[in-house]
Design goal:
Two copies of one chain form a homodimer.
Chain A (H helix, E strand, L loop, with lengths): L8 H6 L20 H9 L2 H6 L1 H15 L4 E2 L15 E4 L3 E4 L6 H6 L5 H4 L1 H14 L5 E6 L1 H10 L7 H9 L1 H24 L4 E6 L2 H4 L2 H7 L1 H11 L6 E5 L6 H7 L3 E3 L6 H8 L4 E3 L11 H15 L5 E2 L12 H14 L5
Parallel strand pairs in A: 1-4, 4-5, 5-6, 6-7, 7-8, 8-9
Antiparallel strand pairs in A: 2-3
Helix pairs in contact in A: 4-7, 8-9, 8-10, 9-10, 10-13, 13-14, 16-17
Amino acid sequence: MKVQEPSFTFLRACKRLPVDYTPIWFMRQAGRYMAEYRKIREKYTLLEICAIPELATQVTLQPINSFGFDAAILFADILLPLVPMGINLEFAAGEGPVIHNPVRTATDVDQLRRINSHDDLAHVLKAVQLISSELAGKTPLIGFAGAPFTLASYLIEGGPSKNFLKTKGLMVEQPQVWEKLMNLLADVVADFLLAQIGAGAQAIQLFDSWAGSALSPDDYKQYALPYSQKIFNNICQAGVPTIHFSVGAGTYLPLIKEAGGDVIGLDWRTPIDWGRNILGTEVAVQGNLDPAALFAPKNILKRKIQKILDLADNRPGHIFNLGHGILPTTPVDNVKATVEMVHELSQRKI
Amino acid sequence: MKVQEPSFTFLRACKRLPVDYTPIWFMRQAGRYMAEYRKIREKYTLLEICAIPELATQVTLQPINSFGFDAAILFADILLPLVPMGINLEFAAGEGPVIHNPVRTATDVDQLRRINSHDDLAHVLKAVQLISSELAGKTPLIGFAGAPFTLASYLIEGGPSKNFLKTKGLMVEQPQVWEKLMNLLADVVADFLLAQIGAGAQAIQLFDSWAGSALSPDDYKQYALPYSQKIFNNICQAGVPTIHFSVGAGTYLPLIKEAGGDVIGLDWRTPIDWGRNILGTEVAVQGNLDPAALFAPKNILKRKIQKILDLADNRPGHIFNLGHGILPTTPVDNVKATVEMVHELSQRKI
């Protein structure tokens, strides 16, 4: 039996198949920089938007309709699965997420619920279904989740952290508690991603936002890699492309690749050619415009886009993206211009 | 004429000469984690300690006397030279440095004073003299300064920054203003470092704390490297070892080397062997214990120290250090233990 080749440019690029132009999407492409989103946020909190499938759908589609990205990504938050697990989560204005009952002991870990996505995250899966049917035949939808290390660090620190002292403390001083927590998170995340795929997501991205800033490659290998790897191993049965993204991963790219992913996301500190030299040709790469470049005048923005396309060299397996999430004050005009420029500048000559 | 070889282990390691054991010092080794320092801070602000040579001397010597580090580093702040240049600097409690008159236009840059270290930073140079005479024959003293990019980012943002939007904006949109500012900072820093060497500093370190987190290697090469390089070129006449440190520099180590430095500081995300593979044998390396490792139980701490020493492989040209500054709440016991363990575990077999 011959597996049918995907027709969407984004999905073809994930599989390193030839494409007519380089596909583009942005991490956090639905969000605060768009007036349409801010209007909805006047009435609803972030968690409310995530909880109401119709709103999540509306917000997810905004950047697709406005800018013509080659993929949509579910509007959600990596911390959502933690709520039914028993976490008291709040997005405090200006402070980011706050977890009022952080997880720091064996007892805390034992009290976390092993959720079932179909029951406990039904609202998210409903949003995936709605979005998929809206987009059907037009644009593929990316589902996503946070990687175990990043989720664990939020759980343990109680919010964002600079030095991850509590996380690293638990990790090295209570290795069995750490292992139990990380295995639980890996199981929950794999189940959640499979459920998103079942509901219509045509690709998934695993965000390990903090691992690269926090851990030495040695610690990553011991304390984080096995659990991300477990997720990739579990979801490969679903047959959709998987993207693995971590910030500041330049020096541990070989380990990111080892953990898994058909596509490896690169931040703007890791040039495409440097990344490819380390990763080899068996994976695609995604990235990596500095999100700050979107604030520059168009001629400079264009030069920076061209530079990335030059390094990617029209070889199969490149998806254009930012090197990190789009910033809240980004000028909308430049987002539109970037999508157009990437499409135009990467047009393959016949 | 044969140049005499240095006798201090730290200085020998900087020059990649054989040593009996691996020398060790810590970035921010004088500071808040020490009770003796906190006692002085009850009576004086950080800027007052820097301004009173006797206090700066006392604080600089505290970790030398308590832990036996192989090098002292002047107690000062990278922002000190900005004050006589015309900057209104304050260290606000809990917020880090605040610059009340940030530099954002051509006029702002024109108004900055081209200071003369001997006159305008006499108090710092006096501290260097005092410390040098206290340490004479016992421990070498490291002088230091901030690199132009890091200083410019503080000047432009008005304090620490997450996304460096204003800095990157000025950099790409007003390249002539940027060049003027960066050249001025390079001249001031080179003059200041030469003056510190003249006052008795036996090595210097250039801290480019933010370049690695902020810039793509391409932007670093264009907008930061030339000015750091200018400093290294200007101070090489003094003949003392130079150390170049940046955080998150894994993917642009070749450029850090190109900018200059006899020793390249590595953070804990760049393993010693990875760094050496890229840097080659013409420079020494410094680093790179995760500052969070100092919070671990001693057996784990020892394992992590051993791992770094194993990667350094007793080859000439390794100085043990943290991968970033020591954290304020670090347990003092583990600092002492680390110095002892590094000395003991690295003892060269005869």
